[in-house]
Amino acid sequence: MNYTVKEKEAFMREALKEAEIALENDEIPIGCVIVKDGEIIGRGHNAREELQRAVMHAEIMAIENANASEESWRLLDCTLFVTIEPCVMCSGAIGLARIPNVVYGAKNQKFGAAGSLYDILTDERLNHRVEVETGVLESECAAIMQDFFRTRRKK
Ligand SMILES: [Zn+2]
């Protein structure tokens, strides 16, 4: 993964734009983009409420979007940027899509499977291992989640 700090922040800002779409739909604001050769080839946001699909997390939508644009299930040489640490399902999907690099903004202590509860992306027993970086725009990525849950508690 050869992106500069500035480039990584710019891609994470694009993922945050996706999270804003989820927020507008009143759902957990997580966003994701998949980048290949400096270009975004897939975008996604949590759309469980919008589409009434249990599995439609930001990463799944972005992977499906990138598979379609690449006309391939393999997303080799790609970097996935997601605002919040991927869950068990999405970490599995990242492996199945053969994505080699993942950058996430903030940890998810309750559901995270990329270092918090589990470490699926770097587990040596699995044949696909992923290079993981965390903390890019961490405070922005965490803040949009905190705002969402604070507002929801008030309702
Ligand atoms: Zn997920």
Automatic annotation (TrEMBL):
Cofactor note: Binds 1 zinc ion per subunit.
Cofactors named for this entry: Zn(2+)
Keyword annotations: Hydrolase, Metal-binding, tRNA processing, Zinc
Residues annotated for Zn(2+) binding in this entry: H57, C87, C90
Lineage: Bacteria, Bacillati, Bacillota, Bacilli, Lactobacillales
Catalyses which reaction(s): adenosine(34) in tRNA + H2O + H(+) = inosine(34) in tRNA + NH4(+)
Name by which UniProt lists this protein: tRNA-specific adenosine deaminase
Keyword Metal-binding: yes
Gene3D superfamilies: Cytidine Deaminase, domain 2 (3.40.140.10)
NCBIfam families from the UniProt entry: PRK10860.1
Its biological purpose: Catalyzes the deamination of adenosine to inosine at the wobble position 34 of tRNA(Arg2).
GO MF terms, alphabetically ordered: tRNA-specific adenosine-34 deaminase activity; zinc ion binding
Oligomer status and interactors: Homodimer.
